[in-house]
Amino acid sequence: METHLLRFSSTIPRTGLHRPIRSPPRQSKAISVSAGGGRASSFDAEAYEAERLRLDTAARDSMATVADRDIVGGGGEGEVDGDGKAWKWRIRKRIWDLMEAEGIARNPRPVHHRIPNFDGAGSAAVALGRLEEFEKAECVKVNPDSPQKQVRFLTLTGGKKLLTPQPRLRTGFFSVLESRLLAPSSIMEACTSVGVAKFGRPIGLDEKIKVDLIVIGSVAVDPRTGARLGKGEGFAELEYGMLRYMGAIDDSTLVVTSVHDRQLVDDIPTANLLIHDVPVDIICTPTQVIYTNTSIPKPQGIYWDKLSPEKLGQIRVLRDLKRRIERETGQTLPSGPSEKLPPTARRK
After folding, report:
1. Residue 327 neighbours by CB under 8 Å, 6+ apart
2. How many beta carbons lie within 10 A of that of residue 53, not counting itself?
3. Are 164 and 200 within 8 A, CB to CB?
4. Would you say the C-alpha torsion 101, 104, 107, 112 has a positive or negative sign?
5. What SS3 state is found at 70?
6. At residue 101, does pLDDT exceed 50?
7. Model confidence over 123-146: pLDDT tens digits?
């Protein structure tokens, strides 16, 4: 595959609207060579992608069920429901509906229950790539969602270390990719979920790594406060908490998001955010860069008393971390309230 399809011009102005950059058609094949510390030659890319899409569909169906349940059981418009979720779902649904109705949404579609891909994602990535904070970073953690694919590409082509999580943390933890270990023709593929599995080096909780910048996907974000809503599964918060535990990040580590201008909102009540909600410091859209100067405290780690036994049961690395802390401290960590997960959300 040719890398020039995701190459960006340094002369593109920050405020311009540009045609989104398209990826070439996916090629399904078994992997014959392992590169950059990635998986062995037995890795089957076609089977991996088929299973990823199956689990993704199941998870989105599950979240749709959860959203409907929470909205029906929550308070009225403008009120906060008992478990603090219904108001978030109302905002998410409004943005997802708006993006589809106004023709902003891009594949994968529909954008509901996803970090939504959008028209101009490439332009937002260019703006992000021109940030001084990005240019100086040596290691950048980027979410695995479609609208941030170009950011992952810029990270690798910029000679930086890319840290990206396994989708929904269901198959592992994080993987590290380095452009110096990749053939130039492989960099574009390395920006995809299959490419991460193929070329990435899986790391564990004991990895000594310093993350200089975090790029996070969003459904909605408030430019006045830095308050952010993701797609509702809480994985970005868990990833952040585990990186805090590892000592890879601290309060000074900036959090950046790239969104469409229509994803900017002014009705996220900061008083109703939870302690583990991650705020953003910088917002990049196709037309502007916004420094939020957020005063919302960043999470300090994993808040075990907010984590349900059912959620813990989904994520092996979290179970391993909990056992480790309990063994080291000799104390039993608290558990959050139980939650009823739809059958399709129960993943091994």
Report:
1. none
2. 12
3. yes
4. negative
5. helix
6. yes
7. 999 999 999 999 999 999 999 999
